[in-house]
Design goal:
Layout (H helix, E strand, L loop, with lengths): L7 E6 L17 E6 L8 H15 L5 E6 L5 H6 L3 E5 L3 E6 L1
Antiparallel strand pairs: 1-2, 3-5, 4-5
Length: 99
C-alpha cells in the first residue's frame, strides 16, 4: 500500500566495549539493526535491506557482522536463511554473527 512514508530502514554501527549494544561481539564488528513497517512486512523488504547491509559492509572490508534478535521474532528465520549463526544466547534473545 502507498502510505507516503518509508517502508523500512536498516543501519549498522560500531560500539565501544564500555557502551555495548545488545548484539555486541567486539569493537570491530558492526552491529546491524533493521526495521520494517508492519504494513510492509512479508514482502521481502527486510531481506533486501539485510542483503544490502551485508554487501556494503563486505565492500568496506568487515569480516563479521552481528545482530541481536528476540527468540520469538519471526525475522529469526530471515537471519538463518541469510547465513547468520548463533553466537550467544541470552534469556530471551540471541546474538547472531555473519558469516
Amino acid at each position: 500500500p502507498e502510505t507516503g512514508k518509508p517502508a523500512g530502514c536498516a543501519w549498522g554501527r560500531l560500539f565501544p566495549a564500555d557502551d555495548k549494544g545488545y548484539g555486541f561481539i567486539d569493537e570491530i564488528t558492526p552491529e546491524l539493526s533493521i526495521a520494517v513497517d508492519p504494513v510492509f512486512r512479508g514482502q521481502g523488504i527486510g531481506t533486501k535491506l539485510l542483503q544490502k547491509l551485508i554487501k556494503e559492509y563486505g565492500k568496506k572490508g568487515y569480516l563479521r557482522l552481528s545482530l541481536s534478535v528476540n527468540k520469538e521474532n519471526p525475522s529469526l528465520s530471515l537471519y538463518y536463511r541469510s547465513g547468520f549463526k548463533i553466537y550467544a544466547e541470552k534469556e530471551d534473545s540471541i546474538v547472531m554473527s555473519y558469516p
